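If you are new to this repository, start here. Below is one unmodified record pulled from the training split, so you can see the exact layout before writing a loader.
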Amino acid sequence: MPIACVLTFVASLQFLLEGPGLNSLDILSARQTRLWHMLVAFEPTLWLASLLSVFGDFKRNGAVWPGPGRERLAVVFYAVFLFTMALLPTIVPLLARPSFLPANVDALTEVPHLQAKMFVLNCLGSVVSVMLACGMLSVHIQLVGRPLRNPSSAEETATESLEREVLRYQQLRAQLKRCLGFAGTIISVSILTVSAFNNVLTQAAPPQPDVLPSMAAMSFGIYFTGFLAIVYLPASKTLSEVGEALAAQLVRRSPGARATWKQWSEEQQAVRTYLGLEGSALQELQQGLALLSPFVASLSALILGAAR
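And here is the target side for that same chain:
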């Protein structure tokens, strides 16, 4: 995967900088331009890494998409809805103000067909983000549809069935965490890319300082933080409920003798830690940052824009 990501990064730079490129422009800040280059090229690299990770989950355990047709249909329905919601921040400004970029933007940046390239990249980024959101939704749908399964055959004991359910729970938990991390990172990098592009255009065209206002990036951050919260929080709540049920069954079926309440409490604590129900403060912080990363990125973009 590292080699594929490096090749994707190089190919993305080539896609953006065909022709003379931006380095020949003296009117642009080299530092700001290079930052924009790196962020634009880094986005497809993140997309590839996230897709390889999700498809790796599917190849290993098949836990990415639900099995029954009814559950898959629900995921497809939500995918269409989420794709529309993800594109709204891009479509609405275009409808309200079609010429929000300077007419000579290609000449200013020396990037041929810049608007077409940005449109393609925005669409691809939205598709990948929606796929990751659907990965989180599929966790919720699978757990709601089949919270705990009964033994699949007469030969399978209750203990074997419980072990299978614990493995399924851990797979879905890892999938939810991974999808949230990638989705938050992709959206955050997109917001920072918009802010960096705004800085480049502001330096190139001082008469139009509000080409892409910093407050717009702030609005995007708030919007997409809510977008992630709507998708992630229900799945996380359902996952915790299933985890609590599994923890109760594991403690009840444990063969060890618990002579005292302290021993029972220690065993319960160990089971909850094993299932990830008792996360450390660092894990809780990482989860919160992943959920709030679009807002943090928009706040950073606002601060950097004010410091210009």
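Two things worth knowing about this chain: The CA atoms of residues 159 and 253 lie 8 Å apart. The radius of gyration is 24 Å.
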